[in-house]
Amino acid sequence: MRDDEKYTNNEELLLHLQKLLDIPETAALHEFFTELDTLDIARTLESFPAKTRDFLWEFIPDEVIGEVLAEVDEDIRADYIEDLSASDVEQIVKGLDAQEVAEVLDVADESIKTSVYASLDQEIRAQVENLHAYEDDVVGRYMDPETVNVKQGVSLEAVQRYIRIHHLLDDESQQIMITDKDKRLLGTLTLIDLIKQPQDAVVDDYINDFFTLNDQMKVSDAAALLRSKELHFVPVCDSDGLLVGQLNAADVLEITQDDADLTLKHMSGVSDEEEVFTPIMRSAKSRGIWLGINLLTAFLAAFVIGQFEAVLEQIVALAILMPVVASMGGIAGSQTLTVVIRGLALGQLAGNNKRWLYNKELWVGMCNGLVWALVVGLIAYVWFSDPLITLVITLAIFINMSLANIAGVLVPLVLKRLQIDPALSGAVILTTVTDVVGFLSFLGLATLIIL
Length: 451
What we know:
Blueprint: H1 10-22, H2 26-35, H3 38-45, H4 50-57, H5 65-71, H6 74-81, H7 86-93, H8 98-105, H9 110-119, H10 122-132, E1 149-151, H11 156-166, E2 175-179, E3 185-190, H12 191-196, E4 213-214, H13 219-229, E5 234-237, E6 243-247, H14 249-267, H15 280-306, H16 309-314, H17 316-345, H18 353-384, H19 387-417, H20 422-449
Parallel strand pairs: 1-2, 4-5
Antiparallel strand pairs: 2-3, 5-6
Helix pairs in contact: 3-5, 5-8, 7-9, 8-10, 13-14, 14-20, 15-20, 17-18, 17-19, 17-20, 18-19, 19-20
């Protein structure tokens, strides 16, 4: 039994490792990492701050260092590679596939890349250079350039013999791709058909329809397609239809996880590179930009409040109740924003269904606005025993929650049209809208009704 199979979850594994670190038990640490697979080692290293992580590196078996480096976060990989010579990196990448080599060299400087390129097998080198030619946010950067494909017109028996001789199939290969003489993809052949059908038949008789991704497609768009189609294996072609790679189950999972991870970070104004144990100054710097932007929007809301200084001076209750209006609108808008951003990520919003979404969210906002406006109004009446204040906050809550839902739809759709990631700035803009509308409606009604 592997060491990581002794634990029901990752937290138990980390607690056990922390106990070993407290001693520290050198032999036990060596054994601990020897029993883990490379992905578990990578996730474990990411769960510790830099100083502890540097200590733990010494106990990782040399033969899996390269695979671990290809799995860990880019910042961790960069910190490790920074202190290595070209010959060290050459040893680390020896035996890795093209995808793993490309990941490791991503963070190396040009002199190290040049030296390592020269040490690689010619085929692996060509594949790595091809991967590095792609932008970081396109499908081609994620694909496996080593494909299992055969030419049209050959028999199933010949395909089986070819695969056995060259040891082509592995645990990730799910289909064999059929290409013409120019390597233009014609279709796919399932392993079931390869084994089950008459061996003297040609592959052309059992070609299946196939779904492909363009190598230049944005990863976020690809993630939406892969989720909607529930695909675990996809051929990747260039604009001329030539087969250039394939996405295996692990690649598909990486794309969808990275996309979801970036969306979550963007919604909170956190940089793409920040992780749990990113150094203090780096985290502070990356978050500071969005805190500054948020400060500007906060002053906009403060400016709106300042226009009603006269009514606030006369009625203290308004100042007490004012945060309630903004908070209820903010929550209502955030709920809608989350649903809409998810819909955009899944490719569910297009054409006429946007109008239906506007209507739906308006009615949801009005229904919840009415219910919670009455609840808040009742509390305000019990608290202050003032029917005019009760009327003002009841109307303000209803207005702000209704409009917040509309803003929750409108803001991400407008940002999407402007080719701005809705997750990156949608929350900041929405908060500004709900604050301004909330304060404006509340204090404006108070001015009209009470004064």
